[in-house]
Amino acid sequence: MAYLLDTDVFIAAKNLHYGMDFCPAFWDWLVLANAEARVFSIERVVEELGEVDDDLRNWARGRGDGFFLEADETALPALGRIAEWVNAHPRYSPAAKATFLDAADYYLIAQALAGGHTLVTHEKPENSIHRVKIPSVCLALKIPFSSPWDMLRRERARFVLPEGVQVA
Predict the structure, then answer these.
(1) Assign residue 126 a region: left if phi > 0, alpha if psi is -120 to 50, beta otherwise?
(2) Which residues of the chain have pLDDT under 50?
């Protein structure tokens, strides 16, 4: 089982807990976990990350090694199943449905469903009529999802100081 990371995981990591300037170990861990086929995302996420010209955009665009999966025909049935569920759901407004079906989240969930992956996001299930949330769709379609911290704990990620560094 692999993990698929939502756009918000990258943005929050850069802006909050794992800034690229003071916690490069997090970013190195992502690259290593990807090389071991444990962590991925999708190309639509790179597009969203590309909206801001910063170090994160450059990092994402520099991952030409299969980190961001291309869409393929294996996800087509999953796209249909997700669209059917969202469109049939009476809770969401027409605008919320249209926005969701045009966003990276839709494709990310489809890739998770098609590949049997766990989706990693900061989002929480919500009963809003104005926004379709990833966990709400995952719960309905029985797709596993996780917070980034739960993923890091399950994967036993360790961000430690180099050997020989003395802490007073």
Answers:
(1) beta
(2) none
